[in-house]
Amino acid sequence: MLRKLALTGIKSRLKDYIVLFSGLTIASAIFYMFEALATNKNFIEHNTTVGSALIIFQFGSVLLAIITLVYILYANSFLMTMRQKDYATYMMLGAKSRKIGELIVSETIVIGTLATLIGIVVGTALTYGVGMLLVARIDATVHSFQPFYLPAAIITLIFFLILFIFAGLVNRHQLLKKPILSLLHVDDTPTQIKYRPVVWLIEAIIGVALLGVGYWAMASLTKLNILAIPIALVTIVAGSFLVFNALTIWVLAILQKSKLAKKGLNGFTMAQLKFRVHDYTRLLSMVSILFALALGAITVGMGYYNQIPLMTEHSGIAYDTVVHDPNQKELREIRAMDVSQQANYAYKTANKTIYFVKNDFDKKPLLRVKQQHNMSLAAVEYEKITSDQIMSKTDKSGLQTLQELLLANQRNDQVQLVSQSQFDQLAQSTHHLHTVQVKDFRADLPRIKAVYNSQVAKHPEIKEDFSNKYGFYQVLKATFSGLEFMGFFLGIAFLAMLASCLMFKILSGASSDRIRYRMLDKIGTRQSMLRGAINKEVGILFLLPGVLGVIHVLFGLQLFKVLMVDPYYQIWIPFAIFIVLYAVYYVITTKLYQSIVLKKE
Fold it and tell me: How far apart, in whole angstroms, are the C-alpha atoms of residue 403 and residue 423?
């Protein structure tokens, strides 16, 4: 009988349970997606040259597990707010506490297990879909990538099962220790907030100062070295907490006394926010920091994709491709490129000596990148190397530049520049060294790649060669593609899960807000005004950690100045992804919140 009543209660709140179930499914799907990478050692070892990649993935897996635990706790809180009145009613009808406890635990475990199993299936599909999109996006060669990875599925199922057993026991303990009357009247319990402006002002000043220290530490990586990271971590975490605990309440208290509060329902909205922010301090500070990590992971991951061509351009290599004895197919590819300049140098080899035509270098001098002391987006400057510089007795740099363009087995040969007539008298066959510079490396990348692969087929040693930019591009791609892959996966996972945490936290308090909105409705407040007040209230709760998280990222990117040409290059792309995803969760949360607090009975 008790289980039939419980089933009836679930049916009556089917919409809320669908939200909860879908949220748990997304959480398990995201967790599985990351575990499919974190536990697949073959994938990690074959797709990055970073020695600590496995440690990075394992650390990310632990961090994701902690966030998942927090997510489950908030989702679990949402479940309890929906069901505690029902459980109290069952107790009043004579149900034993032991039976109620069993019902709570079993209900939590069944819902969680079903959500996890579906999440693994969804996670497998997402892993494949997102994985293929990322591979195409970053032009990476990925080995040993398996969308369904059994160890990851087992870890996900066991992890979530343990979490749901723990959540069920916590639910049972919290519910049974409360008196029945307090459960029935939980929505009527008032909350008092003491007004302490001096204390809040001091906390706000300390919080802003700590954030300043943290941002300074990240910008001073070259001075502080590895010490910059723990300093930034401690000060930014503490500063975020103090800012949310004091500054927001203090500002809202000032706004409540301003003329703005007298317009429409602004005064009511500010009072609601003041009440909520105090209760949400820990969550909002955690969300701001972890959103910064999520947005930072996406930004850095996509930044490496955007900057590999830029880093290639600033590599100190003058030519986009160097072609040895080009065939007709290679020449067709070159003609299809948007070439800024190209040159062809004829040569012959005899008795370990390579003979070039001197006049070729006077007509089309070799190009060499001028030395740059640090990476920047400034236009690359070139210097021209003529025949006189190549044959200089005092400065061997010109000759060295020419030798670096030759095949590996030719670089120890002597080089001679001769006249056209002397060159024609040599009986050996003529070879050609063809150098090409294009206007846009990324735009012509497919054609450059085709020429490079054709050259490798004829001269395999070119794979170990950095005489052209594409060879260096390949090395950068092999080095950073694993980091790009991880950053994007981890960033999307954190963003989705943390936004869900905030959503469930807001929804878990919706039942207690219902009476206040009902009172406004009864005194004649228009539904459009009520919806507008909800939009503002929920919007500010989403906006506060989002803004602080963005600020964290803007300063945090200073850490990558020594690793990237410009960590802020095309930063609007990951920020746009962040805003769109965040806006989706905001819209979903406001609609669900409105359906709860504005529901007619």
Answer: 19
**pLDDT for 529-554, tens place per residue?**
888 878 887 888 888 888 888 888 88
Q: Which of 152, 160, 139, 9 is nearest to 80 (CA)?
A: 9
> Between vectors from CA 577 to CA 571 and to CA 578, what angle results, nearest 5°?
90
- Could you say which of 130, 165, 189 is where a domain stops? 189
- State which residues form the domain around 377: 321-467
User: Residue 341 has which token pair?
Assistant: 């300049």
Q: What are phi and psi of 320, to 5 degrees?
A: -70, -35
Quote the CA–CA distance of 211 and 158 in Å, as a whole number.
39
Kindly state whether residues 275 and 160 are assigned to the same domain: no
Buried b (16+ CB within 10 A) or exposed e, 137-161: ebebebeebebebeebbebbbebbe
Structure tokens at 358: 């001197």
Report the alpha-carbon distance of residue 588 to residue 601 in Å, rounded: 22
Condensed to tens digits (0 to 9), the pLDDT of residues 278-325 reads 667 777 777 787 778 778 877 877 776 667 777 777 667 888 888 999
* Rounded-to-integer distance, Cα 85 and Cα 444, Å: 66
The 3-state DSSP class for residue 142 equals: coil
